[in-house]
Design brief:
globular; three-stranded antiparallel sheet; disordered N terminus; 8 helices; 3 strands; Rna Polymerase Sigma Factor, Chain: A; mainly alpha
Length: 202
């Protein structure tokens, strides 16, 4: 939806925040993230139907938006631009995660479709979920994460800035895999709590 010549109060506020963010205001970045974090998360949750994936994709969406914020123009509402980034990212994620149809010579377990035999197989190796946030170079988010306690900061840095998988984090920190997942969830909660409490205003 395009922003009209008389944008709504929310749209005007977004434009003001974008301009402040472009000048380096961390408070402006935090305000934008706080305004749309829940909406983006629940939209993504409906798309991917997995809380962990939705949480990861929410952070990735903001990272990409913040990194590319100079490309935003007020021709469209900021929310529209942000939602497009988030939804396109989720679609790419689901495409990578989806089972790959492979055509093979017939075998006992395969089924015939249109004269060819096909079966669904998932690619081996790391799940695409573990290769997120390639564009996550936002210095703003890095500074937000840096305000967390060392234990939680390390988890987020490994996951989002160094692109470690859950398994790799568990090995790096010598922690059980389940513990890594729980603590990462807590780390994300603490990051968003900082935003909600506006503790990164400067």
């Amino acid at each position: 939806m395009e922003v009209s010549q008389r944008p709504s109060g929310n749209a005007k506020r977004d434009i003001e925040l974008v301009e402040a963010a472009r000048k380096g205001s961390e408070k402006a970045y935090a305000d934008l993230m706080r305004r749309y974090k829940d909406t983006i998360y629940f939209m993504l949750l409906k798309m991917v139907n997995n809380r962990t994936d939705a949480e990861d994709l929410t952070i990735e969406a903001f990272g990409k938006a913040f990194t590319n914020i100079h490309q935003y123009t007020p021709q469209y509402a900021f929310s529209t631009w942000l939602f497009r980034i988030a939804s396109n990212n989720a679609i790419d994620f689901m495409r990578k995660k989806r089972a790959i149809t492979v055509t093979l010579e017939p075998s006992s377990g395969d089924r015939q479709v249109g004269g060819e035999y096909n079966y669904n197989a998932r690619a081996d190796g790391h799940n695409p979920e573990e290769s997120l946030i390639r564009d996550q170079n936002s210095q703003i988010l890095r500074r937000m994460v840096a305000k967390l306690k060392p234990r939680y900061r390390k988890l987020l840095e490994l996951r989002y800035f160094q692109e470690y998988s859950y398994d790799e984090i568990a090995k790096e920190l010598d922690l059980p895999l389940g513990t890594v997942k729980v603590q990462l969830f807590r780390s994300r909660e603490m990051l968003f709590e900082l935003l909600k409490n506006n503790e990164i205003a400067k």
